[in-house]
Structures are given as structure tokens and as C-alpha cells.
């Protein structure tokens, strides 16, 4: 059973692995670690998304606390609904004696496939940090049919 535990890259003094894979190897190490709570969470880097299906529409609810309407972009392309967020935080202070100043830019994106979704009459509303989207379904024509020979 000990053979299933991967070599922990973080605790290694060897630097033989190629650069650029640190986050990936650390994610694997966190997954196989003994702690019940990993050091990094994939959900922390995105937003929660719930999709509910009704008979004639889909209802999508995304938690976007602190996000403004101008920072959200919605696109529907061939049944794929994409919710994109681009946020830039900066302070415009007139002080010239900075010892340290930082700016923060973040972007997140989620795409869900809704096979029978229509592109007309999609409604979206951002209220109290929750984005609600209602996507109507369209009736698909049957793609196969038995043909009788005369």
C-alpha cells in the first residue's frame, strides 16, 4: 500500500523537475496527503454554480459576492453557456511616498453545456451577489425517423 503514496515534491530538496509544474505537483501532493483538509482548493479559484432543469427552461445560479454587473460577461454559443468575470482592483491615491503598492487583477470563467437551450429570451439578473440566469429550452426535431417503403 505504501507504493501508492507519491513522492512529495514540496518536501524534496531535489530540484530535478521542470519548472512550471509546481502547482500541479503540489495539487497532487495535497490530494494524496494525510490531512482531511487540503492546503489548496480548486473551488477557491472559481465560483459556485448550480444548474436546475425544469420542463421548459434551465435555471442557473452563480454565487458572485462583491462582483459588479459590469465585470460579468455572458455568452451562449452552440448550447454552451459561458460566464466570465474580469475584475481589476486598484487604488487611485495621490500620495507619492509609496513604500509598497499593489494592484490585483483576477478573471474566472465557467462553461456549462445545455444541449437543448435556446438563444432567444435568455434572462439574467445579478442581485445581492447572486447571478440568476433563466435559459429557455427549445424543442428539438427528431433526428431519426423510420421511413416506410411504398
From TrEMBL:
Domain SHSP stretches: 51-149
Any matching Pfam family: HSP20
Gene3D superfamilies xref list: 2.60.40.790
Organism: Acidaminobacter hydrogenoformans DSM 2784
Protein name: HSP20 family protein
Signal sequence, start to end: none
InterPro entries per UniProt: A-crystallin/Hsp20_dom (IPR002068), HSP20-like_chaperone (IPR008978), Small_HSP (IPR031107)
Amino acid at each position: 500500500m505504501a507504493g501508492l503514496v507519491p513522492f512529495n515534491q514540496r518536501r524534496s530538496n531535489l530540484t530535478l523537475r521542470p519548472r512550471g509544474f509546481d502547482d500541479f505537483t503540489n495539487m497532487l501532493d495535497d490530494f494524496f496527503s494525510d490531512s482531511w483538509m487540503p492546503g489548496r482548493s480548486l473551488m477557491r479559484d472559481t465560483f459556485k454554480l448550480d444548474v436546475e432543469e425544469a420542463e421548459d427552461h434551465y435555471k442557473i445560479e452563480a454565487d458572485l459576492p462583491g462582483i459588479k454587473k459590469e465585470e460579468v460577461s455572458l455568452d451562449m454559443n452552440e448550447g454552451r453557456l459561458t460566464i466570465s468575470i474580469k475584475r481589476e482592483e486598484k487604488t487611485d491615491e495621490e500620495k507619492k511616498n509609496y513604500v509598497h503598492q499593489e494592484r490585483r487583477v483576477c478573471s474566472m470563467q465557467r462553461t456549462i453545456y445545455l444541449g437543448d437551450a435556446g438563444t432567444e429570451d435568455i434572462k439574467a439578473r445579478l442581485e445581492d451577489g447572486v447571478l440568476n440566469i433563466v435559459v429557455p429550452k427549445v424543442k428539438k426535431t427528431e433526428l431519426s425517423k423510420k421511413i416506410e417503403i411504398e
